[in-house]
Design a protein that fits this description.
four-stranded parallel β-sheet; 13 helices; Rossmann fold; elongated; 2 domains; alpha/beta; homodimer; 13 strands; seven-stranded mixed β-sheet
Chain lengths: 412, 412
């Protein structure tokens, strides 16, 4: 393998997570260890838009200590985007521009951190540059709280959101069960098509403080069945706690949240969801005749770095570092993934997933990991998710407030 | 002062907090240190209702280690209630029953942990027992996230909620500012008449990641002014973050949340609020023409022990311990309070506030601590609140999940 000398660019894309900046730290810190091959390290301002506009930050001018604070700093420190690059057969304007900027900046290492859509961007960039015979190694770093990326055991970001949800729900359990009055609570977790996050709320059940019922988009939702399920629990326990995914839909494919669908559609064609908890809470209050609260975790679940999973942080860092090492070894056109070893204790090894195998696909919760009634997850789901929330968060505090990384963000 | 030998009872009342169980731990651990005077330690099942029904737990039979875990366990471990005792001149049934149960159980130390309404209960019990010449020392322990208790610098529970809100808002700031698209976010904090919690969201501003606008119930709310304020910020910053109290009202005294007022009224006559964030988000989306998210912190803000203030925990413990010491010294008919020393560094001493001076009153945010425009708090507010959120939470974790106290709750 020829040694490739040049500059590196890293970008963040799609919805933020608690640990996407840990992957950034992994890429930056590993790249800094190889000055003989990687001459300059650049960050894209707002993902691929930063390349299109030639708006790059010079990461080499940041303090190393601040880069280390990234592991306690949620969301996309460089800025994110949801920009979709056209397919080259339709319109190659964007790809020509990307090629131009990379060449101008002598960028030979291209890292993009995101979900399904971002892997699509990676794949297009990689193919286009190869066709143009511009040597550049392209690596995707996985990221999504939704945990729906294909080809990897799990995704950095998921474990931290799962830990946050399990923690918050177990604490609300304490609150709800301190009253003697009957009550219902509906929690709304993110997840349009994949119910991983709502499913993860079952982790609170490991300590006996979880939801009683969980509804995922993988199983058709039935209002009557939910009312009946809730009534049964309420009768027995006086309090019923229900977790749902934002994307639950009835058998005819209609979103439960559709009544709230006056919202905009983003540039990937996703409908903006939210409000299912409030809607179901109203429904249930009428049905059950008790006080019902709807709690939508909203953005909180994807940026709660103060409750992140230590393992998730370590793995996000590792994904970044492994990506750089792989690229230096000549690897290109892959996403970094995790493969779990059989049995206990939990162990994962890094794998390389060809971009074409993961881009634009979605991995949903297997039907076998949801109980027959479709109102909870199975022990297999819990055994899968529990190891992912272990370990303490890395966030540092000053005067009781988070000490986030302070980057200078000096433009190239 | 005669030594008083007998049993102690402790109860929790009103809305849960992250540290009410720390006060419980303080009372229990201190009481355990004085077996020569306090023979048995009882816990009320669901507050005063537990006395009325003679449903008490024998705390002496709990493991000491589990009592220590209480400092990381949110909400009311013994159960809470919102029961309002009738005034004896109207109906003394409840007070006669309380007297009967206390006498039957030889209870000579009565501790009640709660807010304004709970101090009213304390006061009635204390006066009634005195009139009946039943010797029993009655102490109120302050508790409320609302921070609206009279006669004390601040209330245990407030600091932890304030820290949680500041942390969560600063993390959401990171999320919102990672996009280049304009956006507005409305945060809804608890507080019917007092804006302490919404005000505390300004603490996130200390690290530059706070809301741009804060509206409290202490200042009449004006929709047009809010729209104009938001437009100005949006123009300058591209993102506007707004914190409001659930209880904000217009100049005519109408709650902004009133459109959602189909909800029940609790037994103290409080209207159940909520939904202001969603309502204002809808309003603003139309006004500003940008994406707006409403985030209601709901129960999360009062039970997030995983993000509690270490100082708040220590002070809640201290309030419990000091209460027991005071009672053993012959004090009765007071609430434990905090008096802050002038100047830096932060120091507070314990004071005894006569129950009549605090019961049924509400301490709101001074107008001078809100800016002239009525859309933010002043530096005085921040100087007041910042020391209250210092110190790390005490919550322990096992497998990434909270290790809550596990009490046996053996009935007397």
């Amino acid at each position: 393998m020829t040694k490739l000398i040049g500059n590196l660019v890293f970008g963040q894309s799609g919805g933020p997570t608690s640990v996407i900046n840990s992957s950034a730290a992994g890429v930056f810190l590993e790249a800094l260890d190889h000055p003989e091959l990687i001459q300059n390290i650049y960050g894209m301002r707002h993902g691929i838009e930063g390349v299109l506009r030639d708006e790059l930050y010079d990461i080499g001018r940041e303090d190393r200590q601040e880069l280390e604070y990234l592991t306690g700093t949620p969301s996309s420190i460089l800025g994110t985007c949801r920009y979709k690059i056209a397919s080259p057969e339709v319109d190659d304007t964007d790809l020509r521009r990307i090629h131009e900027v990379l060449a101008k900046r002598n960028i030979r290492y291209f890292f993009y951190n995101g979900g399904n859509d971002s892997m699509d961007t990676c794949m297009k960039v990689e193919r286009y540059l190869k066709a143009q015979e511009y040597e550049c190694r392209v690596i995707g770093i996985p990221k999504t709280i939704d945990n729906d990326l294909f080809g990897t055991d799990h995704c950095p970001g998921f474990g931290s959101s799962a830990r946050y949800l399990a923690t918050a729900i177990s604490e609300v359990w304490q609150d709800a069960h301190s009253y003697s009055t009957p009550m219902a609570i509906v929690f709304e977790c993110m997840g349009r098509h994949a119910g991983w996050l709502a499913g993860a709320s079952a982790l609170a059940g490991v300590i006996g403080h979880g939801p009683d019922l969980i509804y995922l988009p993988e199983v058709p939702f039935d209002f009557d069945q939910m009312h009946e399920d809730a009534r049964q629990v309420l009768k027995k326990k006086n309090v019923v706690m229900i977790s749902v995914s934002e994307g639950i839909m009835t058998a005819d494919g209609t979103l439960v949240a559709e009544q709230l669908s006056s919202r905009a559609t983003d540039s990937f064609g996703h409908k903006q969801l939210g409000g299912v908890a409030a809607l179901l809470a109203d429904e249930l209050a009428d049905e059950l005749g008790v006080k019902v609260r709807g709690i939508e975790f909203s953005l909180l679940q994807r940026c709660a770095a103060h409750a992140a999973s230590g393992r998730d942080i370590e793995e996000a860092l590792l994904a970044g570092r492994s990506g750089v090492k792989a690229a230096l070894d000549g690897v290109s056109g892959v996403m970094i993934g995790f493969k779990r070893a059989e049995g206990e204790p939990y162990r994962c090894e890094i794998i390389h997933v060809p971009l074409a195998e993961t881009a634009n696909k979605e991995k949903v919760v297997p039907r076998a990991w949801i109980n027959e009634a479709g109102n909870y997850v199975t022990q297999d789901f819990i055994d899968y998710a529990l190891p992912l929330i272990e370990g303490e968060p890395h966030q540092k505090h000053e005067n009781g407030l988070p000490r986030f990384a302070r980057l200078k963000k000096i433009r190239v």
